[in-house]
């Protein structure tokens, strides 16, 4: 039996748990053994993933972070390193030379393609003709007024960096936007100059997830987010990762997703996520492109592999095989998953996949 020795960092986060679970399922489905070492900064969440060895590591920003990973790689004979959270993936990509020297494989985008800030994304995509919302950098209250004059109302204001819709809010007037910036600055969550304000996109909330190898698109799928958890107790209604989403098959969404990744990267390599909102006319517009895994991407792959009994759907499995330089099953470049399947999840309630032909409990 093949044995793979893999290190997953951030293994206790929701995305990391999904990734480890998908690998475990792939192992049982294709008859491979995975020896998985997981690292995690959070002292509690490290309990979640099913690991062979669990190790606490310092934060990605700690000067000892890279040395800690290299030590684990040596000690456990790790062959493939998967840094799951983007903050950690970025540090690994920045220090790629040291990991190459250690002889460990990775399948990662360039450092600059991981967690790019929203202004970089906006400028890069606009220059390359990809649809983006009209956006202003907020350096002063005058910028806010200009944005309302130019773009109309309502607008969407948010932090220029970070994930999960960080400090995002729909605002209906310059006064609201100014108060939002002021409150967040006074309370120390942000500094002056940290916000962007842009056209509010009222349409469908979409995501495009894609796996690339040496500049070529390997496979991808698109979905619509339908519900977020705890939306009624959050100001924006956007709480990071959706509790209900459904697969869609939509050529225009695929096209904009692929163009967004190509605009960000001259040679995409690894996993890339695109967030897309539709404008009032139903046109897909890109709000984010990032060389990262969306939280549920490995879960979708795992869910379909389990429900339809075919490992080709398991994105984490395809990724590991590519990372090891091995062949993968035949997969389509777009629309890997059949349309109109719902992934339904909620804290303490488990994970369900529901679609034509049935309902499956995934976790
Ligand atoms: N201009 C916008 N208008 C309306 N909603 C938006 C807009 N930009 C982002 N959102 C919502 O916020 C979510 C998070 O924004 P996104 O651009 O993906 O950045 P990040 O995930 O890095 O915080 C999006 O999925 C979308 O639901
Ligand atoms: Mg996003």
Strand segment count: 16
**CATH architecture level-2 label of the largest domain:** 2-Layer Sandwich
Number of helices: 10
The SSE string, one letter per element, is EHEEHEHHHEHEEHEEEEHEEHHEEE
CATH H-tier superfamily of the largest domain: ATP-grasp fold, B domain
Average pLDDT = 97
Gross morphology is: globular
Question: What do we call the CATH topology of the largest domain?
Answer: D-amino Acid Aminotransferase, Chain A, domain 1
The small molecules bound here are: adenosine-5'-diphosphate, magnesium ion
Q: Regions with pLDDT < 50 over 5+ consecutive residues? A: none
| Beta strand % | 25-35%
Overall SS class: alpha+beta
| Order of strands in the sheet with most strands | 13-12-9-10-11-14-15-16
């Amino acid at each position: 039996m093949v044995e793979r020795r893999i290190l997953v960092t951030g293994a206790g986060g929701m995305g990391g748990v999904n990734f480890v679970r998908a690998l475990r399922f792939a192992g049982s489905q294709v008859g491979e053994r995975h020896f998985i070492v997981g690292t995690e900064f959070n002292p509690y969440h490290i309990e979640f993933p099913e690991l062979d060895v669990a190790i606490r590591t310092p934060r990605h920003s700690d000067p000892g972070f890279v040395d800690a990973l290299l030590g684990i790689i040596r000690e456990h004979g790790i062959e493939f390193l998967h840094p799951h959270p983007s903050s950690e993936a970025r540090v690994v990509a920045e220090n790629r030379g040291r990991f190459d020297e250690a002889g460990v494989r990775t399948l990662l985008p360039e450092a600059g393609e991981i967690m790019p800030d929203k202004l970089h994304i906006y400028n890069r995509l606009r220059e390359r003709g990809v649809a983006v919302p009209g956006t202003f950098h907020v350096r002063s209250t005058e910028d806010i007024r200009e944005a309302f004059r130019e773009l109309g109302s309502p607008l969407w204001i948010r932090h220029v960096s970070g994930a999960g819709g960080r400090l995002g809010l729909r605002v209906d007037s310059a006064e609201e936007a100014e108060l939002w910036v002021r409150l967040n600055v006074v309370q120390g969550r942000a500094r002056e100059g940290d916000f962007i304000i842009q056209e509010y996109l009222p349409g469908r909330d979409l995501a495009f997830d894609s796996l690339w190898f040496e500049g070529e698109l390997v496979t991808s799928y698109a979905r619509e987010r339908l519900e977020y958890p705890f939306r009624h107790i959050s100001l924006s209604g956007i709480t990071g990762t959706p509790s209900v989403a459904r697969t869609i098959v939509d050529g225009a969404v695929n096209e904009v997703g692929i163009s967004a990744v190509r605009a960000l990267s001259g040679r995409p390599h690894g996993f890339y996520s695109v967030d897309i909102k539709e404008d009032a006319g139903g046109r897909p517009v890109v709000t984010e492109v990032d060389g990262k895994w969306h939280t549920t991407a490995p879960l979708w792959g795992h869910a379909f592999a389990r429900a339809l009994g075919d490992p080709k759907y398991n994105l984490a499995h395809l990724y590991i095989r590519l990372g090891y330089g091995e062949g993968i099953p035949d997969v389509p470049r777009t629309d890997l998953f059949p349309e109109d399947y719902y992934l339904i999840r909620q804290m303490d309630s488990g994970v369900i996949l529901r679609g034509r032909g049935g309902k499956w409990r995934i976790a």
